[in-house]
Amino acid sequence: MIAIIDYGMGNVGSIKNMLKHINIEALITDDPKTILSASHLILPGVGSYDAGVNNLKAKKLDLVIKEFALELNKPVLGICLGMQLLGNKSEEGKLKGLGLIDFENIKFSKELNLKIPNMGWNYIKVMDKDDPLTKEILDDDRFYFVHSYYAVCKNKENILMTADYGLNYTASVRKNKIYGVQFHPEKSHYFGMKILRNFALEV
Predict the structure, then answer these.
(1) Does the predicted TM-score (pTM) go above 0.90?
(2) CA 67 to chain centre
(3) Are the C-beta atoms of residues 104 and 124 closer than 8 Å to each other?
(4) How far apart are CA 77 and CA 161, in angstroms?
(5) Among residues 92, 136, 186, 189, which one is catalytic?
(6) d(Cα 148, Cα 166) in Å, to the nearest integer?
(7) How many structural domains compose the chain?
(8) 21 catalytic residue (yes or no)
(9) 72 is in which domain, residue-wise?
(10) Is 80 a catalytic residue?
(11) Residue 11, Cα to own-chain centre: how many angstroms?
(12) Does pLDDT of 99 surpass 90?
């Protein structure tokens, strides 16, 4: 059973529907006991960084996520803002993130002369093809992105996938069983199904 955290900041219904489409059981919840009893956890996210931090803390879900990942050593997947919240901080806000992976989020520079946010389909490059999340994921697979900020990892081993938008940036992070994807697998059709299936069955 996958627990999709409901903290008012993500496309929880879309994620659950995509998982149902590939026959993966999931529930949407903000109940700590239910979350901790799940086999996997998904932290979605759409919106501003500080609002995400505050919403998690309001229900003490930040502590639940850390217990799930660090003490119980169960798999976690952050999506979009959910991925950014796994890091230390963001230029978008002033509050500290969950600090589960050592990275910071910075904004795409206006000097790139590109539209911000980065919105649309983009190809990814897999940095570790042996990782369970990237099973059968190819470098010409496309995913749907909507973001103005991107992760900068201090340890290159935490970079699982990259993409290009004016510069080469981190599209997916990982540390042990903690994962984050900047793109939206629930909006990425067949390619997104592969990511969610791998997370549920391989990680």
Answers:
(1) yes
(2) 18
(3) no
(4) 14
(5) 186
(6) 12
(7) 1
(8) no
(9) 2-201
(10) yes
(11) 12
(12) yes
Angle at which helices 12-21 and 189-201 cross, to 10°: 80
Structural contact between residues 104 and 151, judged by C-beta atoms closer than 8 angstroms: yes
pLDDT band at 10; cut points 50, 70, 90: confident
Concatenated DSSP letters of 130-199: TSGGGTT--TT-EEEEEESEEEEESSGGGEEEEEESSSEEEEEEEETTEEEESSBGGGSHHHHHHHHHHH
CA distances for 155 relative to 102, 152, 174, 198, angstroms: 7, 9, 10, 24
- Residue 103 · residue 114 · CB < 8 Å: no
Active-site pick, 25, 40, 184, 189: 184
Residue 170's CATH number? 3.40.50.880
From CA 57, how far away is CA 5, in angstroms rounded? 13
Among the listed residues 40, 80, 92, 153, the single catalytic one is: 80
The pLDDT of residue 4? 98
